[in-house]
Amino acid sequence: MSREEISFTDEQKRVLDLVQRRFPLEVRPYKKLGDIIGVSEAEIINHIDGLKRNHIIRQISAIFNTSALGYKTSLVAMKVPSSDVEEVAKVINEYPGVSHNYLRPGSYNLWFTIAVPPYESLEGVVEKLRKKAGSHPTIILPAVKKYKLAMVLDVIGEVSDLDEDEDEYPRIDARGKFEPTEENIRIVRCVQEDLPLDPRPFSVWANNLGVTEDFLLQWLISMDKKGIIRRFAAVLDHRRAGFTANGMIVWHCDKEELDSLGEYLARQPEVTHCYHRPAHPDWPYNLYAMVHGRTRDECLKIAARLTSLPSLKDYRVLFSTKEFKKIRLKLFWDYG
Questions:
Q1: Within 13 Å and on the Cβ side, how many CA atoms surround 249?
Q2: Rounded to an integer, what distance in angstroms lies between the CA atom of residue 18 and that of residue 268?
Q3: Left (φ > 0), alpha (ψ -120 to 50) or beta: where does 130 sit?
């Protein structure tokens, strides 16, 4: 089935909308979703199974605040001759902490995200990768401030009615501390994987971990409330879900206005991510936002609307033209 041929029933759209916003942390979560939509537990499981088999849903799992677990993360831009891009991308992708790697036209054309464990230096790891890949000019662009982190695609054009009393978007900063005990690390390694399609999926995980279902659910709820888990939800393949274009919009803004502009952009529903990143002499942009659309033109229209404020006039839209790597970051890959 090609991406253009994929279409969703109204029920599938409702399922997609609910599971990517916040998945129920309950004994029978699929039944809870069915009760909300008005269908049976078995129908929900069948819908999700079909959406996974068609690669619309990548997985349903805990999405962690990596910095709360001690990881250091950054966006990295590299200036690579077009003839070397494929080979350089392969070298970069070998590092397990690289989760996304894209080709974006421009002088800096290879863009990747990286996370390194607490005991490693972010700058040191990037430098090793840079040298191994051919010593190309590289800029490390960590988030100085995060304004929004919410990869939620508007598949039906309305707000979900699941967990109405909770914040619509995941917390940016953790409110508690993660203790890297052996048990906690084992649980993280388990719950970052895809949730089983079982009527009691948390029981399956609990049995694998050697803990009770109630203990695991309370652990997840506690980590969620502390913001150590940003949210427990589905991650979609945005292209397979119909959002075939994504643009990274970058602005050159006055430092004094960064916070107000970042907060303004974070309020816009089309924006999924928004950060203040450091400017560099040959890359002066310091405010970043990601938008997704069904077409490139739709993204450009979104960008034009977002830049209606005079302070947001100096901008560029960088489209991803090739995807070298896109995976869920697996934390504690070096554990055990």
A1: 30
A2: 20
A3: alpha
Q: Which helix (H) or strand (E) holds 138?
A: strand 138-141
Per-residue pLDDT tens digits for 261-275: 999 999 998 898 999
- Identify the active-site residue in 55, 100, 136, 252: 100
CA dist., res. 50 & res. 54, Å (int): 6
Q: What is the C-alpha to C-alpha distance for residues 136 and 111, in angstroms, rounded to an integer? A: 13
pLDDT, position 288:
97
Q: Where are the beta strands (DSSP E) in 145-228?
A: 145-149
Structure tokens at 177: 């501390």
Closest CA to 194 of 224, 233, 225, 242: 233
Nearest CA among 72, 22, 82 for reference residue 224: 22
This prediction has a pTM of 0.85
Which residues 6+ apart lie within 8 Å of 268 measured at CB?
Answer: 306
Question: How many CA atoms does the CB half-sphere of 41 hold within 13 Å?
Answer: 11
Q: Among this protein's residues, is 100 annotated catalytic?
A: yes
Output the six-digit token pair for 181: 């005990």
Q: Is 234 exposed, middle or buried (0-12, 13-18, 19+ CB in 10 A)?
A: buried
Q: What are phi and psi of 71, to 5 degrees?
A: -80, 150
The DSSP 8-state label assigned to residue 27 in this structure reads S
Chain position carrying tokens 């659309």: 293
Q: Cβ(286)–Cβ(164) under 8 Å?
A: no
What average pLDDT does the segment 147-165 reach? 52
- Indicate the burial class of 54 (C-beta count within 10 angstroms; 0-12, 13-18, 19 or more): middle
pLDDT above 80: residue 15: yes
Whether the CB-CB separation of 54 and 7 falls below 8 Å is answered with: no
Give the dihedral sign, CA 103/104/109/115.
negative
Q: Other CB atoms closer than 10 Å to residue 94's CB: what's the count?
A: 11
